[in-house]
Here is the input.
Amino acid sequence: MQTFDTDDAVRAARAVFWERGYEEASLPELERATGLSRSSIYHAFGNKRGLFDAAVASYLREIIRPRLQPLDSPNVAPDAIINYFTGLREALSQADSLQSHSGCLLLNAAGAPISNETAVSQAIAGYRLELQSALSRGAAALHPDMNAGARLQLATVLSSLVIAAMTLSRIDNAQALATVDTALTLLQD
Here is the structure.
């Protein structure tokens, strides 16, 4: 019988993977963070990789998709995309947030050997497509007269700026914020 809350354990592991990366997150560190024994981790998740997969799913469900939800609704508000970037800027501005010093769990994985795993590379590619699609809907709501080609181009640039900002936040938070500001300027032109 399982005596722990799976979601709490996954969130604790997610923080370790997010900050340290898959390869650098040791089993003893994951045991300390989750409060689980190695045998409990293996019983519940199969192995470290299974725990990482659960952390990625949790990250998408609890961190990424709630932020994108206003851009995914049937009737996207004209200011939803501005609010998205304003919220991203706010998250990156909070010195104690994981985003401000650890960037994006998926983008961190993209630059590591774990990205060679098919399921991980598919999750990263899926995130990029989901982000670009949401930003395209947001751009359409903000600029309803923009043609489809220009909207796709803007969404591509904006998603690239999000990826750049989340990557830069690990090493140069001021530049990450400037990158988000560039996206806001593009949207307001």
